[in-house]
Structure formats: C-alpha cells, structure tokens
C-alpha cells in the first residue's frame, strides 16, 4: 500500500485500532455480537502493520493526499474481505461507525438509511440478523426522541411528530419484534386523541409476553391494556394481573378501586384506596385523590382515619390541612381549627391554610382574626387574592361589616367565573334583598329558573323577593309551584325548604292587604303543617298560624297561638318581638293582621372590583 492510500483510509493504524475498539464497545453495549471478517482493520492487519504505516502525518499531508487531475484517485478503502458473501458490508460498517456519534433525529435517520442499504445489497445470515437488530434499536431511539419532542409541539406539528414516531416504532418492531419498549410506546401514543384502542390492546399484549421476566414493567403493560378493556370482567382481570405482578402499583390499585365501585363492591374499593395511601403516606396528591374518592362514597370518617395514619407516619403541613377540610365537612370545627394551627406551625407562610383558618374564624364571628389571616395570605402570595376561596372570605367579611355593595361585587365575580353555580346565584339574590335591591334579586333568580324551572329553592327565593316589592299574586304563584316540585319528598333538605315555603305562603294568604289573594282557611292548613315540621319551636311560624286563624275569624285560637309566639320569641330573644306583641294586641281587638312590604329599591351603584374597600 502506498502512503496516500493509507492516509486516506484512516490516518494511522493506532487511530484505526481505537475505532475498532469503539465499534466493539458499541456492539457489546447494544447487546449485539458483530461477526468477524469485516472490512475494518482486523487483528492480523494491526499486527502486520509496518512502522511507516503508523508514523504521524506531516502538516502537509492533506495537500500531499490530493490526487492530480490526470491521475485517478486510489480507492478510499480496500474492498471488503467477504464481498461476495456480504456485498452490503461496507454500508453496515459505516452505519456502525456513525451510530457511535449519532445524536439528532437526522443522525439516526442517516444510520437507518445505511443499514437499510446494507440489507438491500445483501448480507450473510449472521450479518443480516445483526443489522436488523441494530436497525430496530436505531428506530426505537428515533421513536422515543420524536415522542419526547411532542410535548414541545402544538397542532399539526404535534400530529406529524406522532405519526413519524409511530412509523419509526413500527419499523423497529418489524426488524426486532422483541423490543418491548417499542410495543409499549406505540400503545401510549395511541392513548392520545384519535388513537386506536385495538392497537393498544395488540401492543400491550405483546409487551406483556416480552416482559415475562420483568414483573414491574409487565404490571405497567397490564394496566395500560386494562384502560382499553370495555368488558368489565376483562378490565378487572387485567388490573388483578397488574397488581399480582407488582403489588406496589398504586395506579393499578386506584383503577381497580374505580372498577370495583362501578361493580358496587364498595368495601373492596375502600380497601384498595387505603392500600394506595399506605404505599406512600407522604404523597399529598395520592392522599388527596384517595380522600376525595372516599368522600364521594360518603366515607368521610374512613378518610379521616386514613389521613390520621398517614400523619402519624409522616406529619406534614399538607396532610394536616387536608384533614382540616374533612373535619369541617364533618362539622368538627374545633378539630379543624387545631389541624390548621398545626399546619401553620409547620409552614407559617402557607396561604391556603391561612385562608381556611380565616373561614373558620368567620364561622366563630371572629372577623378580626379572619381579616388578619386574609391579609397575611395575600401578602405572602398576592396572586392568592384572585382565587375563589379568598374572594369568598373577603365577601363574607364585607357582609359581617355591613358593606353589602362590596359583598355583592365579590359574589358577582364568583358567578362570572361559574355561571352555572346555582348556590352562588341564590347567595347573590339574598345579598340583593339584604341591600334593598329586590328587583335585581328577581332578575337574578328568573335567569336561574330559565335553566332550572323546577328548582324549588329558587322558586321560594323569588317568591320572597316578590313579597318584598308587594307583588303578592306573583309570590303566591311561585310558592305554589315550589310546593308542587317538592311533592312528597321528605328528606332533611326538602323538609327545611318545605317548612319555609309553607310558612311564607300561609303568611301572605293570611295578612295580604289585597282582598283577592287572601285565604284564611288555606293559611291555617299550611300554617299547621309548618308548625308540625318545626316542632312548635320557631316564633315566626307560630305567629303565622295565629294570623291564619285571625283571618278565618277564629280569634280565640289566634290569641292562643300568638301568645305562644310571643313566649317563644322572648326565649329565643327574637329581634321581631315588638311586632309579635303588636300582633297579639290586634287579635285581642278581633282585628286580623295586615302586612304589605314595599321595599324602596336601593339605587346606589355597585362598586367595581378595583374600587373594593381594602379589608
């Protein structure tokens, strides 16, 4: 060999040896065994290399190597040793070299193209097997890279990356069906919108078999297949298999709990949820999800017990705060307050715990403490001021301080964020009534009834608003509709609403100045039902029954029930005791009671959020 051909090949035998070493390392790392007899320098070539061939190049070597135009350039490398058997050997060797430094998707595409070229030209059986394994590995890496890049893409680009990733992964499997990672990634890509559930089942089934010696990964494959199972029994079977393979698979336990709930097996579902939290008692996200599912099952006590175990294992601010929420649900205000104090002792600058404690302070009529906690929370994290919980606290502080316009403004913000929140709309209507804005209350409630015409609570509230403006016929119509909607429902919530409707309807039928709407007999009938529902314990309800008897002309009974109303009012320190006594005097004179409310509409403007008074 002349010097020029040696330089053009690979500079020095030492460099060439290092390249061979890198190739061997790559093959070993990839789990492949490269066959002998390649065109790359063999051990024999290295041993027989002459000293002249291993000398360093001179600085002008590149210029010396440039061929003259009249002289054909010598070949850059000698023909492969086994060219007749492996015509694609050169491409395969180059692919191996390029694989070492391949980093980008473009680099990997180039490597794949070389391997495909080698396969097309022809390789020995041994080399063919090796090449296909290597091509599978390259395409898997391409697919993984493209799938990872999807999170940074949007729209059409993301869809194209997904398509290209899926194609690369399928090529990987076509060349090496034993690539479990490729099967799993294909399944995961098909979980995205417009994915194919049949492909997910096919891919995960293949992965389950390939992961026979890897129970952790096999458990993941079972879980992924379970997601696509439409048959409840098959889904549960896959979840059971996932948990059997890896009892610590919390996601599989959560999924199985959900499947058991759908099947009506609440007890086993709760057991699985408890195991989830026991696996990682410090994971607040898992704790919150588990607790929420228990609460949805009306198992708040079990949720508290579970959190108590988690706190005993590893106390944290977040767990104390979560248990405080549960205690509030269970109306255990003292326990909730104690947990929030512990949470704030561990993390004094937790704005959420401060807001929760502010809400509890309002429930204790401690407005000063509520204001202080709200102020501290917003100073720690100014953005907290815009979350619903902070707005609610600010709203109720304003109510306690008599700043109704500020409270209304805050409630309007909450409704704008969630226009379908009927509870907030009822609260807004109540605030309008308290601020002498009954027309606005009627408007708000009417908009709700357009969407929920059968909502008895809203009908009752609008009837109350109609009374406030003296529109008794409209009020009676709404009360009657509300009674029809409740019907024979006798649960606790409807009983509370029912007693109020009965009382208010009986009152307007007994006391309205409008002759055409009064009905003493019906007022007595409704009043008696209201008194029975409230166990004769509410002064204003007793007063209503007395007014019904007076309207029907039975003043003896009117006086009897009116006396009871006054006595009860004195016991409960009713703020309407003066009117109750005036009603009694009227009945003693054989005069029925008349009342017509005509609230003068408050015309003052509602402040915008920017103009709210600083609390």
Automatic annotation (TrEMBL):
PROSITE patterns: TPR (PS50005). The chain crosses the membrane at residues 20-41. Keywords: Membrane, Repeat, TPR repeat, Transmembrane, Transmembrane helix. Residues 60-71 have a biased composition (Low complexity). Coiled coil: none annotated. Residues 46-87, 584-615 are annotated as: Disordered. Signal peptide: none annotated. Residues 72-81 have a biased composition (Pro residues). Residues 585-599 have a biased composition (Basic and acidic residues). TPR repeats lie at residues 250-283, 317-350, 539-572. This is Tetratricopeptide repeat protein. It comes from Allorhodopirellula solitaria.
